[in-house]
Amino acid sequence: MQKQLTEEDLKNMSPEEIAKLQQQNCIFCKIISGEVASKKIYEDEKCLAILDINPANPGHILLLTKKHFQVMPQVPDKIISHLFSNVKFLSKCALKGIQAEGTNIVVANGMAAGQKAPHFMIHIIPRKEGDGLDFDLKKTQIPEKNQEILRKKIRQKTNELFGIVDKESANLNSKPAKIEQKVVDAEFTEKQSTDKKKTEEKQDSQEKQSEGKSSKQQKASSKTSAEGKKPNLDKISGLFG
Amino acid sequence: MSCQACDWIEKSKKIYEDDKLVAILAKQPANPGHTIVIPKKHYTILEQIPDKEVQHHGIVINKITRAIFESMNIQGVSVLMQNGIAAHQKIPHFMTHIIPRMENDDVGLVWQPRQLSEEEMSTVELQLNEQTKKIETVDAKPLTKVNIDNGSSHKKQKVGNNQSDEINYLIKQLERIP
């Protein structure tokens, strides 16, 4: 019999141990193994599609990876690419099978994005005009200068993950420029952010030292040279509070 | 009338670009860092995009999601496709939204879970299962479609039904020959 875990036990556990515990208690892993019943729509070696028992709309499909991942960035290329083509397939099935007029495809990474269970899934939600659901996006204005700073930041990190060195990122200093207060606000900064940034800067410069040997132009195909690097688990496991 | 998205592809500064798609910042973001991944070819909806290209989309979307996670101080990331007008699609050029999230940021993308009757659920299950048998899946590598034996479905799904029909027809043809 499993001993009852105290709060202190949980505090002393590493992120990996916590993840393992989550997996053992994961209802979706139990659905995949057949321990818990479900309404299956499609299944293959890599994924399982089931009906959500508390759907947003009739025909709301949950497309699950058979392997337990918490959030999308943890999923390797081979699996995510397979999943996305199944998203297209299942969306088509919804349009034809239940005469849906459209579909919303949603991935919620982290509690703040509405993630309810720590097992990665893609939602395929059939839509009909006037069905009362709201997947519209609000619109805000951001000064062009701040947009440009953000764009460069995301581009630089994207290049790192793809293993690309292009002219733009080569011009950026290894030390990030001083960030203006407006941009800091625009990035939702909280009190702890300065500490987090210091850790990230250290990580960035370490990553740059280990990479940067190839000099391909940015139009390279998605070679998985950066696939071996695992996403920062600390940040991700913290997403569930 | 020219396509707004095609215009963005041509004129905007990029986060990422390859021969099939681009990633740019949204002009009117839901949150700072709101990125849009747009196929270069003018596809209207997801179903028009060839499977291999959709797979490529998945890989790029995933990498950019991770890039956003790691380069910004945020608590989550939403990925959203608005496939069709009923799904709030505004521009008839398919695109995927990647949106940085913070708690109580008022971006939404949530829904009220509904309770459907067992009958409704079973009907939908049957209708969808009918389609998954008919429509071809990924053309890249054929994977074994697992024979699903659901306690809740009303009939057993037979794999290879078409094959046996074909064989029967051929036998009937043979029997006809004098």
Structure report:
The complex is a heterodimer of chains A (241) and B (178). Chain A is of the alpha+beta class. In chain A, a hairpin with a 3-residue loop joins strand 1 (40-43) and strand 2. The longest helix of chain A is centred in the middle third of the chain and has 21 residues, at 77-97. Chain A has 9 helices and 5 strands. A 5-stranded antiparallel sheet of chain A has the order 1-2-3-5-4, covered by helices on one side. The model of chain A is unreliable at 173-187, 189-196, 210-227 and 237-241 (pLDDT under 50). Chain A folds into 2 domains: 7-127, HIT-like (HIT family, subunit A); 144-230, no CATH class. Helix content of chain A is 40%, strand content 12%. Chain B has helices at 4-11, 51-71, 118-134, 161-176; strands at residues 16-17, 21-25, 35-39, 76-83, 96-101. Chain B folds into 2 domains: 4-101, HIT family, subunit A (2-Layer Sandwich); 118-176, no CATH class. In chain B, strand 1 (16-17) and strand 2 (21-25) form a beta hairpin. Chain B is 35% helix and 15% strand. By secondary structure, chain B is an alpha+beta fold. At the A-B interface, strand 1, helix 4, strand 4, helix 5 and helix 8 of A face strand 1, strand 2, helix 2, strand 4 and strand 5 of B.
